[in-house]
Amino acid sequence: MAAASFLAGAMNAVAGGGSFVTFPALVWSGVPSVAANASSSVALFPGSFASAWAYRDDFRSFEGVSVRALLPVSLAGGLTGAMLLLLTPQATFDAVIPWLLLLGTLAFAFGQQAGARLRQFIRIGPALLLGGQFLLSIYGGYFGGAVGLMMMAVWSLFGVSDLRAMNAAKTLLVGVTNTVAVACFIVAGEVWWAQTLLMALGAVAGGYVGARVGRRIPPARLRLGIMAFNVAMTAAFFLRT
């Protein structure tokens, strides 16, 4: 589990998709799916801020909407998503899991290309950007697979093109989205602490190391490897059902 969370933290720092490692690891270790999703969010939560600290020199305000303006929107969306998860029956969530993984896999595989293609025809304003951030934060609080890449795709429609600034903002806002979700999961008693604390330590180390080392690895190779892993996990959960 420590190795899985280290890998997940590194993946989140350089490209995203870390929950595709921690969530299956928890489920296959015997943790019920809703509790596994909550525990995975708690375990990866510190790693997001470790990565954000490593990216601290890359933060830039988006023209027309500052990163600070996106913070309360992300908190509100994360709270909504977390409450929806806690209200979802276990059997329903089990049935939805493969489709959530498929959505995250497709977003990871095609999110950047879709954003670039749509940017040729669509340009959104500040109000739509904030609305889109709220909806994505709901998804982030509920499940969160590849939510960072979805955020970056939406930001690109706003005209943001600085990849380093977007990656830095992504790590921070995903962490902020999970802040209130993590609090909800803890209060609801859905966290399996022995597994979660072990994974949290690995995720912090992986998040910081991934942010520092990831810049030296060709992004195309990173994305290809993570994409193959995500496809395998998605297929495994469809076969499991």
Any overview of this molecule?
- The structure is a single chain.
- The protein is mainly alpha-helical.
- It is built from 10 helices and no strands.
Class per helix and strand makeup? mainly alpha
Low-pLDDT runs: none
Distance between the termini: 23 Å
Helix residue percentage: over 70%
Residue-averaged pLDDT: 84
Number of strands: 0
Radius of gyration: 16 Å
SSE series = HHHHHHHHHH
Strand percentage lies at under 5%
Largest sheet: none
Query: Given the C-alpha coordinates, what overall shape results?
Result: globular
Multimer state: single chain
Counted by DSSP, the helix tally is: 10
List keywords for this structure.
mainly alpha, 0% strand, 241 residues
Annotate the secondary structure layout.
Blueprint: H1 2-14, H2 19-28, H3 33-54, H4 67-87, H5 90-119, H6 126-142, H7 147-157, H8 163-188, H9 193-213, H10 219-240
Helix pairs in contact: 1-2, 1-3, 1-9, 2-3, 3-8, 3-9, 4-6, 4-8, 5-7, 5-10, 6-7, 6-8, 7-8
Question: Quick gist of this model?
Answer:
The protein is an all-alpha fold. It is built from ten helices and no strands. The longest helix has 30 residues.
